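User: Hi! I'm working on a homework problem where we have to compare a predicted structure to a textbook description. Could you give me the structure for the chain below?
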Amino acid sequence: MAEPLETVLADAGVEPALASGIVADGWTLRTFREIAATAADFNDALFAELCPHNETLTLLQKASIRSAWRSAHQQDIPQGASADGSGPATNSGSATDGSWSEVFPPKLNNKTVNALKKQFLQNYPSEVLTADTQPSSRLLALAHQLTQKKDFKWLPWKFRMSMSRSEDMAMSRASKAPRLENLQLHQLLID
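Assistant: Happy to help. Predicted structure tokens:
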């Protein structure tokens, strides 16, 4: 359920007088989301049009408005649009709440994995990512999905493995043997 614009502005720390002025000018949560495409688009001209009753906004007031804009966009994502805006989000994480079986999230594409690696290396520059330290693709997909949903729960130990361990397990699986019940003895000898 979407919150009204006043609540979003108050939660972001926008001053009550400034928030009531924005709402009084006719801004709604839906129109407030559409002010800018990115946070970098917030400039002095945009703030002057958003708050014409205030001559100058302090840096703290501008930051609070940007924060409210971000939280308004984060509320919009679970309601139907995916993170990249390509269309409605699918419920591929779990079958139903309280069910015994879970459907595993789809594998991440290379672009997303590279973005996650880049962010990790930026946040932890002294860490070295090798096949022994990088999480498996299944673990990355699950963690990424839970982070997108903001549903932080326990990850089962069976999914906590490195990329090399995951590859080792895939290689150690027995290959499928052909079904021999329909073959005759002479066909087996010829083969």
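For your comparison, note the following. Confidence is low (pLDDT under 50) at residues 78-96. Residues 5-79 form one domain. Good luck with the assignment!
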